[in-house]
Fold this protein.
Amino acid sequence: MLKIGLTGGIGSGKTLVSKVFNTIGVPVFCADTEAKKIYADIEVRNQIIDIFGKQIYISDTDIDKQLLASKIFNDKNLLEKVNNIIHPAVHKHFEKWLTQQKSPYIIHEAAILFESGFDKFMDKIIVVNAPQDLRIARVMARDNQSYQQIIKRMENQLTDEERNIRANFIIDNYMNIPLLPQILKIHEIILFGC
């Protein structure tokens, strides 16, 4: 079974692209969704509380995402500490999930696929692109975040150029470029090599 990584900058449209792949029958593992669930794990919770204190959780299972983001995206050392807790746990969940799949290939969607090192476990990489100003507008509308908050998050991700150099496939998700034909072409290449 081929493992296909799907990544792109914040607001590029990775989730939309992964939903299309899932609609055509390709299993999708969303690392960002799994990471959010992992914060509820008691062992992870205790490690996060050791770093930030109890106020980082708004309940026994729900982390205060805005407070966490305000801390880690302004301090690379804290970001690294959190990543060293979350990334191995996500990888463990992915390996377990993978054993349950029966498809010619799967999609592993992750915002920071390269930054986390998950790209090393993938056979091919798809990068979703959109201009930065459009990505910022999408995230501001979607997440109710300020321009400055989004820029801080972007600063902790690779640039489009850095991702594109490492990509096997690039999907453009802007202007009037239809997504479906791009996705179906990649799907055929992965399945049939043409």
